[in-house]
Amino acid sequence: MKSPFPPLLLAWFTPLLMAADKPVLVPDISARQVQIRYSFSGAQLLLFGAIAYPEGRAPARPADIAVVLRGPVQPILLREKQKIAYIWMNADSSRFRSAPSFYAVASSRPIRDLIDDRTASIYELGIHNLQLSPGGGSLPERERHFEAGLLDLRSRAGLYSENPHGVEITDGILYRAVVTIPSQVPVGTYTAETFLIDSGRVVAVATRDIEIDKSGFERDVWLAARRYRFAYGLACVAMSLGLGWAAAVAFRRRL
Amino acid sequence: MHIYLPIAGQSVNALFMILLGFGVGVLSGMFGIGGGFLTTPLLIFYGIPPTVAVASATTQITGASVSGAMVHMRRGGVDLKMAIVMTVGGFLGSVVGAAVFRMLQSTGQIDVVISFLYVLILGWIGTIMLKDALLALNIVAAKAPRKEVPRHNRWVASLPLRWRFYSSGLYLSPVAPLAIGFAAGVMTVLLGIGGGFIIVPAMIYLLGMPARVVIGTSLAMVLAVSAATTMVHALTTRSVDIVLAGLLLIGGVIGAQYGALLALRTKPDLLRLALAVIILLVGLRMLLGLAWRPDEIFSIEYL
């Protein structure tokens, strides 16, 4: 689904081709696929593109851009440790049915300066506006407590991030943002959403998909461990026996 | 040099893992132990998920016991019949252990149970070994002349259905070694330790086996049970990381050879003292981990 034209070219021609009176976003990503290989220690993605205005030139007061990169949604159980009889152990837990495994938002100005809270929560802009779908039946206080715990945990792991000045806009037309992905992200389809925000309203939205997948040897190992459990186990045992034996033989000759 | 672990789902420093394997390998060669009781906690401190740490450390136990078992086998230091009986017990133990593991995992208490059992076992064994070593080195004077320990434990002797174990020169019920093997199997699955440092005293004091065959037999049994446990983990928890296991093994099997060399040049009582101190330190660290406020109050479990 790669566009046939380079984004810059498209940015110039689109307004001529369409008689729309609304600006359009033409986004792209530095890589449509991220492959996790043996040396994978995280990746940096460049999310860039152009704002195509109807008249072909930027208005006097430039609009703002927010980009969101989010990973596949995973249902999780969050456990909380408490001190019980001098020992810290898991005491309480809460479910979240739709917590994204990865979420990064970058914007040209802080989100709260761009839109009001209601709009932000509609578009899930900002980590405090994520719809996590906590398991029902619990008190709002307790829900908030667990939500704060999850956000804090994942923020420190680099899985959830907010960068209020992460989008750079050139001449009111071209924008770019760099998003860092840590090594422990899950595989799956990620989506990159770009929002054009003007006077507190979201004017245009555009979405691109990114595939993050284990590749080559890492992928084979991961699949083998799931699909061919018995053979995989045998391979592990054979490897340990083989290496142990090889070392014993090698050292007997030397000594 | 960072390398990505496909099962653990994170990248680690490959050199660090090889050195960790080497260090534990040296100790395991010196003391004739699997070394799982060191590898597993160290991997957990490093940030590897506990399940992956436990499952991958078992492969290192297998690797470390191969050469030892080979040497003892050649010298006739393995009571094969006894080893087979204990291994059968070990298999049963690892299957039951896996069921307990899953149950604890679903209630969220697996980490606490692992740490707690480590503290208990390491504290107990470490104290006994420290006392023995200090007595042997004459650092502490023995209070009273030791009572003569009877060669045969009364409970073990009262068990029905006796078999003859010729290599050990024993006539006893197979239930006792079966039970010891069972305990070792459970521990291997739950804690990622071969249990050599528990089986050896049990074989000497409970079964009354002669020292000549104790080490070899326990090594043969640890080898079989750790291999079986790797299989159990591969089939049930699916958390054996072959890349992590490979890194640990490369360091581990070489370290074990150097360790065996070192052991020949050191006084055995000093060795025991050193091992006792190491065991107590690991146990103490685990205890602090339980009692101190942990770094992370929250933890995530994927459904």
Named CATH architecture of the largest domain in chain A: Sandwich
How many helical elements of chain A? 6
The biggest beta sheet of chain A reads: 6 strands, mixed
What's the pLDDT, averaged over the residues of chain A? 84
For the termini of chain B, the CA-CA separation is 33 Å
User: Which stretches of chain A of 5+ consecutive residues score pLDDT under 50?
Assistant: 1-5
Total helix count of chain B? 11
What number is the mean pLDDT of chain B?
81
- What's the total count of β strands of chain A? 12
Class inferred from helices and paired strands of chain A = alpha+beta
Distance between the termini of chain A: 63 Å
**Radius of gyration of chain B over all CA atoms, rounded:** 19 Å
Strand content of chain B: 5-15%
Oligomerization category of the chains in this entry: heterodimer
Low-confidence stretches of chain B: none
- The helix content of chain B, as a percent range, equals over 70%
Largest interface: A-B, 59 and 55 residues
Pattern of helices and strands of chain B: EEHHHHHHEEHHHHHE
* Tally of separate domains of chain B: 1
State the strand order across the main sheet of chain A. 2-12-11-4-7-8
How would you describe the overall organization of this protein?
- The complex is a heterodimer of chains A (255) and B (303).
- Chain A has 255 residues and is an alpha+beta fold.
- Helix content of chain A is 30%, strand content 39%.
- Chain A has two domains: 7-211, Macroglobulin (MG2) domain (Immunoglobulin-like), CATH 2.60.40; 215-255.
- Chain A has helices at 7-17, 111-114, 117-122, 140-156, 216-227, 229-254; strands at 24-29, 33-36, 43-52, 64-70, 73-84, 87-100, 103-107, 160-163, 167-170, 174-181, 188-198, 201-214.
- A six-stranded mixed β-sheet of chain A has the order 2-12-11-4-7-8. Chain A has a four-stranded antiparallel β-sheet with strand order 1-3-10-9, with helices on one face. In chain A, strands 5-6 form a two-stranded antiparallel sheet.
- The radius of gyration of chain A is 24 Å and the shape is flat.
- Chain A starts with 6 loop residues before the first helix and ends with a helix.
- The model of chain A is unreliable at 1-5 (pLDDT under 50).
- Chain B is mainly alpha-helical.
- Chain B has a two-stranded antiparallel ribbon with strand order 1-2. In chain B, strands 3-4 form a two-stranded antiparallel ribbon.
- Chain B starts with a strand and ends with a strand.
- The model of chain B has no long low-confidence stretch (mean pLDDT 81).
- Classes of the chains: A alpha+beta (255), B mainly alpha (303).
